[in-house]
Specification:
about 425 residues, 5-stranded parallel β-sheet, alpha/beta, 18 strands, 6-stranded mixed β-sheet, 14 helices
């Protein structure tokens, strides 16, 4: 690993050498090769990023809203010009196929476009003579420093789509904690942000660190808002601590989305949609569709057709244009998904298709998990109730629409659901 690049962190628009003694490897998920190391930034380095954002806030927030959105309009063009470069980088460090990685970057560009419309979106309100001799007016004001704590699974869309564009368009400044597993895409975008976007120093800063240092964001009074995407346990902690300290908090957490396939559904269409939703991004997204509730009368036919289509997916190197299912993000995540598969077997679910142990010629050290299907998943089986975040489908059988609806509504995760039917009644 002597030739591996040690990355820096960014404060005041300058990439700085970290004084940390702890470095975190970033791998090519298709090969298992370490392609970079990022610093576990020290508490002092995280605090310097907050100080930079705070120092940049007065001038940035006083810049006119139209001037800020004009810069974002130019920034959108920079992202488009580097679309393919960012696509390949995202594909390598995360394991998304090229189409999925390109979509990740495009989904960063879309909110940037929306942020350009903020002059008409964040207008205040006014009322004359609300009581005799009194008028009222309300204004939307920038908050200050916003901390963005980023998950590994969308290294372009979440930090550079959901977090940065709207925050800075509204006049705030940002400190990003990039995901240590997949920081390279976000780092490259930040390089472009300053080099070609022309933004003032300190408007966006970036660190990589552990949970211990990230705790600073929740307690530091200079941070006025925290936005987080990730696991439920961490999200609850962030929400409780940061909100108790008077901060605005967004915490978007885990999911276990359900589909309901009724006996009148077009099974060809339904299975195509489910294959795409379940196995897209190797199941590593909160809007994946891991649980399919199927009416008993067509369940055997449905499972057979789904299994046939899943077996036909080409599993391979993420940046091979022919690949339809790439690797998961890391060796640890691969083990976690495989442990869940073993858990499903232990709990008594019927393993119809086993994706463990799959090998891709030429990429034997990649973090691959093939399409996996469980049938006869019963209520109370943890494999059917908790988020796996991998290419695993869980089939739950029901007799009626009402039973299926009750099962779906009993799911503690309220993220997304879909019903496949040709009946207008349902």
């Amino acid at each position: 690993m002597s030739g591996v690049v040690k990355k820096k962190y960014c404060v005041d628009g300058v990439w700085r050498e970290s004084q940390t003694k702890t470095w975190m490897p970033v791998t090519d998920s298709s090969t298992g090769e370490v392609i970079a190391e990022v610093p576990c930034c020290t508490a002092q380095e995280v605090e310097s990023a907050i100080a930079s954002a705070q120092a940049a806030f007065p001038a940035w927030s006083q810049k006119s809203l139209s001037a800020r959105t004009q810069m974002l309009f130019k920034w959108r063009m920079v992202l488009m010009e580097h679309l393919e470069e960012l696509t390949l980088l995202c594909s390598k460090e995360l394991g998304k196929t090229l189409d999925e990685a390109r979509g990740d970057v495009l989904k960063a560009i879309e909110p940037t476009e929306f942020a350009c419309s903020l002059p008409s979106v964040i207008q205040g309100s006014a009322a004359l003579q609300v009581t005799t001799g009194f008028d009222t007016a309300s204004y939307r004001m920038p908050l200050g420093v916003v901390a963005g704590i980023v998950p590994f699974n969308f290294p372009a869309m979440i930090p550079w789509g959901w977090m940065v564009p709207l925050a800075i368009a509204a006049g705030n400044t940002v400190v990003l904690k990039a995901a240590s597993l997949t920081p390279l895409t976000s780092m490259r975008i930040l390089e472009l942000f300053y080099e070609e976007g022309g933004f003032p120093a300190g408007v966006v800063n970036l660190v990589t660190c552990s949970r211990n240092e990230a705790e600073i964001f929740l307690n530091d009074p200079r941070v006025k808002a925290v936005t987080f995407v990730g696991t439920t346990g961490v999200g609850k902690h962030i929400y409780s601590v940061a909100s108790a300290n008077g901060k605005r908090v967004q915490a978007q957490c885990e999911a276990k989305n359900h589909a309901l396939v009724l006996e009148d559904a077009d099974l060809e269409s339904a299975t195509n949609a489910i294959i795409n939703s379940t196995y897209g991004c190797a199941g590593m997204r909160c809007m994946a569709l891991p649980v399919v509730v199927v009416q008993e009368s067509i369940a055997d036919q449905f499972v057979a057709l789904l299994t046939q289509k899943a077996k036909a997916l080409k599993v391979g190197c993420a940046y091979d244009p022919q690949t339809k299912l790439g690797p998961v993000v890391s060796a640890a995540h691969q083990k976690k998904v495989c442990d869940w598969i073993e858990k499903g077997v232990d709990e008594g679910a019927q393993l119809v298709l086993d994706g463990r142990g799959i090998k891709v010629p030429g990429y034997e050290n990649g973090y691959f998990v093939g399409p996996t299907i469980f049938d006869h998943v019963k209520s109370g089986m943890s494999v059917g109730d908790r988020e796996i975040f991998g290419p695993v489908t869980l089939i739950k059988r029901v007799r009626t629409f009402e039973e299926g609806l009750a099962l779906m509504n009993g799911n503690p995760f309220a993220n997304g659901s879909v019903i496949f039917t040709q009946s207008g009644y349902y």
